[in-house]
Structures are given as C-alpha cells and as structure tokens.
Specification:
6 helices; OmpA-like_sf; transmembrane; transmembrane helix; 14% strand; 218 residues; elongated; 6 strands; 56% helix; 60s Ribosomal Protein L30, Chain: A; OmpA-like; alpha+beta; membrane
C-alpha cells in the first residue's frame, strides 16, 4: 500500500509537467494564429487601398481624356500617365522661347477644358519644360544652357495660358533641361521628341514637392 502511494506521488509531477507543456504549446499556437490573422488582415487592407488607388487614377485618366478629347483626337497633344505632352516644334523654333502662332492657338484651346477639370478636382497645373541633350546654340547667347531654355519655354507657356484665361493661382512652371528624356538622344528624330513641354494636374498641397527641380513662377 505504501509502495502504491509512493508511486502515485512520484508520477504526479510528471503529469503536471506534461499539462504545463501542453498549455504552453496551446498558448504559442494561439499567438501564432493571431499573428497570422493580423498579417492577413493587414495584407487585405493594403490590397484594398491599392485597388481603390488604381480606381481613382483610372477615373482621373478617363476624366482628363474626356476633357481633352478634341485636341487628343487631332494628335496635337499626347496624354501619358496623366501628363499632357506638346511637341516643342509645335510651340517654338529651335533654341527659341518665342511662341509660334499655331502653338498659341493650341494653348488657347486647352484653357477652357483644363480650367474646368482643375476646378472640379481642386488641383493645379504644373507646366514643365524639357530639351534635348545638345548644347544651346545661338548667336546672341540668349540662353546660358538647356536649363535656362527649358525654364523660359515653361514660363512662356504658363504666361500664355494665363493671358488666355487660366487663373494664375492654378498653375506653376518648372524646368528640367535635358533631364528625363522620353527616348535616348541618339538621332535628330529622337531629340525632337525630347524637346517638349508637359502639363500635369497635381494636388494643390503637393505642388511644391511634385518636382525635384526649383519651381519657376510666372
């Protein structure tokens, strides 16, 4: 009898240890399960945010296409990722910031649809000037370099839009020089593509940080 009691007492700690071990494993499993569920919920939330963001961007693109349907159909402008592109040769002669008559007429036709679009979305228009990689060549040395040429062209377009009815508070100018070419500057045709002016609607709160280059105001 004493031997049985002693044996029972000796085995009790073993069962207690096993129960503690199972409790610990169950707790670890629960924590792991909670962690997995939290990660899945976070992933689902991020996925939903990304889908909503893409839907907003798609709606913005469609709205901009609708607003600019006529000039887009004529091929005088392009629209890529929300950036409205105008060929430099349509606006300016080579190494010049003097606006061509055809370019002025085009800009005039863009004022009404762009103004309506910007007002409906509470956005601003960033007007950016770009050049090719060739150094500026002119007899009077009117421009020191491509930075200055692109800045003056952006200012010319900006001021023209204002003259044609765009509120001055609704746009700003920026210069990129030969940076950010559309295609590699390997031929005259390619360089002609890179000599351009782009206009892009941006949120008003982000206009100061929307470009890494200094903003040139009208």
């Amino acid at each position: 009898m004493l031997e049985l009691e002693a044996e029972s007492e000796s085995t009790t700690p073993t069962w207690i240890s096993f129960a503690d071990l199972m409790t610990g494993l169950l707790g670890a499993f629960v924590l792991l399960l909670v962690g997995v569920m939290a990660a899945q919920l976070d992933m689902a939330s991020k996925l939903e945010d990304e889908v909503q963001k893409r839907q907003v961007e798609e709606q913005k693109r469609l709205s901009l296409e609708q607003a600019l349907a006529i000039p887009l159909a004529s091929g005088r402008i392009t629209l890529n990722n929300g950036r409205i592109g105008i060929s430099g040769k349509l606006l300016f002669e080579l190494n010049s910031d003097k606006l061509e008559p055809e370019g002025r007429q085009l800009l005039k036709s863009l004022v009404a649809p762009l103004r309506s679009y910007l007002e409906s979305r509470d956005e601003m228009l960033m007007v950016s000037g770009f050049t090719d990689d060739k150094a500026v060549s002119n007899r009077n040395r009117q421009f020191e370099d491509n930075w200055e040429l692109s800045a003056q062209r952006a200012l010319t377009v900006t001021r023209t839009l204002i003259e044609e009815g765009m509120p001055s508070s609704a746009l700003f100018a920026a210069a990129f020089g030969q940076e950010q070419p559309l295609v590699a500057n390997t031929s005259d045709k390619a360089r002609a593509q890179n000599r351009r002016v782009e206009m892009a609607p941006v949120p008003k709160a982000a206009n100061a940080a929307s470009t890494q280059q200094p903003t040139v105001k009208p």
